[in-house]
Amino acid sequence: MKNKITKKELKTFNILKKILNSKIRTSIILHLYSGEKNLFELRSLCDIPSSSISHSLKSLKDMEILKKKGKTVKLTTKGYMIAINLIKLIESWHLLVIREEFWSNHDTRSIPENLFDSFHLLTNMESIKSSINNISKPLTSFLDSMQTTKNLKIVLPNFSKQQFNSIMQLIEKDQIEVKMIVSQKLMSYLETTNFKSKIKEHLTSGKLKINEINEEKTLFLAIGEKFIYIGFFFKDGHYDDSTLFYSDEKEAILWGKKLFKYLNEETISNLFLNSILIEKLESEPHEHKSKI
Predict the structure, then answer these.
(1) Which of 53, 78, 121, 133 falls between 20 and 30 A from 84, CA-CA?
(2) Cβ pair 177, 152 in contact under 8 A
(3) pLDDT for 7-18, tens place per residue?
């Protein structure tokens, strides 16, 4: 995890802090992000008197965030970059605030710090929740989406028979190829189930690739060509199957792929261990069944 803040990052932070301390300066930058404006336009957009806006414009000019161009003002290159960071910060904050109760009750430790920095990419994710009339709505939504993709990357933190059976059936029908990350504990459990022979068959064919990790992850992640789903555990260690976050936006899907790559790098040998797993599955069945 990154612990040290560079001088450049600290300087950017101090500039953002100074800007955010002024509602007027923040408003000016956000309005100039869409293009240059004259004083009358800015005064109208920001809804403030000329004297106040002139003072703020001078302050931003002194910080080299904007510059005059005739009768208009525009962002400098530095100002444009500050505006982008400001928008990201506002969007990320908005995502956390509107779902404050959810985040305060759920475990997000499996998401690395660098991906939290780009959390704003998930701003438009839809929250799919169970209801009294449709308890399995999150799972059903994911299973339906799975029918639309040919490639699936998935992090399975626990075992759901309906979910796993659907994955096996789609592989059997040559509709999908799957890269799966599971904990050693979950893999040991799968070896004791009726899916053992199918797992071996699909591993052998190459349609299924399973990666084992030592540490159990506190999230569910599924990425197809045109979707991403994320689910989380409560802080008490129980998986929250009542809520899944969904998006079909390219930026959110790319964010999910980066998270999958990060989790994949934590695997036992940094490779999909098909040959080792096949060998394990060919061994004698376990005498004791662990519970997942």
Answers:
(1) 53
(2) yes
(3) 666 666 677 777
Domain boundaries, the chain: 7-89, 111-282
Taking the mean position of all CA atoms in its chain, how far away is CA 75?
Answer: 31
The string of pLDDT tens digits covering residues 25-69 is: 888 888 888 888 888 888 888 887 777 788 888 888 888 888 888
The upper half-sphere exposure of residue 97, i.e. CA atoms within 13 Å in the direction of its Cβ, equals 6
User: pTM of the prediction?
Assistant: 0.67
Q: What's CA 22's distance to the chain center, in Å? A: 31
Query: What CATH architecture does domain 111-282 belong to?
Result: 2-Layer Sandwich (3.30)
CA distances from 217 to 40, 109, 135, 234, 243 (A): 54, 8, 24, 12, 17
Whole-angstrom distance, CA of residue 25 vs CA of residue 56: 6
Residue 4 has a CB neighbour count (10 Å cut-off) of 5
- Of residues 76, 113, 107, 106, the one with CA closest to residue 92: 113
> CA-to-CA distance for 93 and 170, rounded, in angstroms?
39
Strands 151-156 and 177-183: parallel
Return the structure tokens found at 190.
């799968």
pLDDT for 134-162, tens place per residue? 889 999 999 999 999 999 999 999 999 99
May I ask the CATH class of domain 7-89? Answer: mainly alpha
